[in-house]
Design goal:
This protein is 79% helix and 0% strand. The radius of gyration is 21 Å and the shape is globular.
Length: 475
Amino acid sequence: MQETPQEGNSAPLEHVDRRAWLALSVATLASLLTVIDVSIVNVAFPSIKRDLGASAAGLSWVLSGYSVAVGAFLLISGRLADQRGRRKFFLIGVAVFMLGSFLSGVAPTPGFLIAARVLQGIGSSILSPASLSMILPEFPASRHSTVIGIWGASAALGAAVGPTMGAILLDLLNWRWIFFVNVPIGLVIFVLTPRFVNETKDPNAERRFDLVGVPAGTLGIALILLSVVQGPEWGYASLETVSISIAGLLLLGLLVYRSSVHPYPLLDLQLFRLRAFWSAAVGQTLFSTAFIATVLFNTLLLQDLWGWSPLAAGFGVVAGPSLAAILGGPIGSIADKVGHRTLITIGGISGTLSISWLLLTVGNESNYLVSVLPAHLLLGVAVACSFATFSSMGLKLVPENRFATASATLRTGSAIGFAAGVAIAITIASTTANRGQLESFRYAWAFMACTFFAGAFFSRIACPSREELKQASLN
């Protein structure tokens, strides 16, 4: 519950509103920081490999270790935030993230860097569900779609700023500064949060846990993510991949069973009785799968296929995320008016058109203005209409006391989608490389286009309409 100002000391409405918007600014800055960290690392891979003498397989774990840690710990982090205080866990997450960033910057060996990145991922998994759930109680329900739209726009801005910032830091300093830069920004967030954000939590929450379901769920998700990210290297039919996948699925089955019978479950199955929630979870996972693969191959297109420098490529991918950041707030404000399902469908179709344009126009010769820029702008529209709208719809009917739990569950689906998208796209490109680099890109793009379209089609038939969502909110 949101803390109530003491009698005789209550502020006027204008002051409360101003404080709420400042709280939103702090939360969006944290979201921006974590997204920048993901996108900024990609441009530094060659420099890290050179400086630390890392193998290609080892280097992949600089990114994969972070992703596995984020996905594995989201559910338990969201549950703890609802139980023990969202602001408290947000600050813990920021502190862990800063420590992981500093250790990544001073890493003397590849193994040390991977461990530090895992620590960063744990920090991100703690602060991410808390960052949104701690600010929603500051606003009336009628403004939640707008707030989530603004919060989601910060992620798009981070995707735009990350590659460019990374390229500039590499050009002026060295790769270590892509991690060091997180520390002063994190300190600002750490100082401002207690000043502008009220503590909220579930007042009826028990502090007990399912001692079987929690480790089963955490390890199960970690194993599924591990099998996905390592599948291209090990082979999807290999003994390692199959064994780890089966173990992960069995543990997730145990998690679902325990959550259905235990009084304090890790996974809140009641959420999946809400059509708006489960359809958002599935639709967002499909969209995330296509989106992250698109982002990766947009960078590879400029650098590997067309031979652009990292600095030029960093600026070359800015247009789409910048448009998404500009459109995010306004689109969030109209979600309740035009309908979440309509916006999500537009987003999925825009993503499909973005990839289709690349398939039709990209050749071996650089032609940015005709081929890539229109595709990036369409992708920006797709992101603006989709990610925040999925969150807004998914949380629409969720009780306030379960905001962090629900947010963490949605983001776990996205984490699995992110891991699957990269792994599948790389596998497709690798297995078709003998047909030429451009052809291998086209096969990967075909997968992305089909996945975007599948997300749009699913959302159109599964997500509730504006009238159905409105009626459900009144019941």
